[in-house]
Design brief:
The protein is built from two helices and 14 strands; from the N terminus they run H-H-E-E-E-E-E-E-E-E-E-E-E-E-E-E. With 171 residues, the protein is mainly beta. Strands 1-2-14 form a three-stranded antiparallel β-sheet, with no helix packed on it. A three-stranded antiparallel β-sheet has the order 5-6-13.
Amino acid sequence: MSIRFIRALVAVSTTLSFAAGCAAGPLDCEERSSEGARGDGAGEPMPAVRTDTVATEASGMTCTCLAGKEFQNGLCYPACASGWHGEGPVCWKPCASGFTDTGWFCHRDAKIISADTSKCPWYDKCGLGSSCSKCPAGYENDGCTCRRDAYIYAQESYGRGAGTTPSCSTQ
């Protein structure tokens, strides 16, 4: 289960569940599957369930969403704006280049590199008290080193509403 899915569940107080296959959960399904029984005593193997697709097949059923909606976690949601991605009822904007997505936040680690002190005199190799030490753009000059502080910001998001049930039919 992804971090994004968990946070989407927290963001929405009421969640609609669509169960396909075993109602008791995946562990119960695995046990029955390993025994070679479907759970009704027929001795048939448990059918595979595909998820995160527009059409999902389970127990002889095919489920689809209307045009402009995407199937996710058993429900249909409106598609997110171009460049954004959805997790349940929430659309998330990707982090800026160079930042790491940590769930609700984007972060960039601190970084320290050597300064260009080639123009500094021999008696002031770090350029302390003068401007002979140079750093790249975005870095603070600390003399012999250049520092870029860590930066964290909240990831932009918007709600796309509670999911709707897909249209399901037998094959």
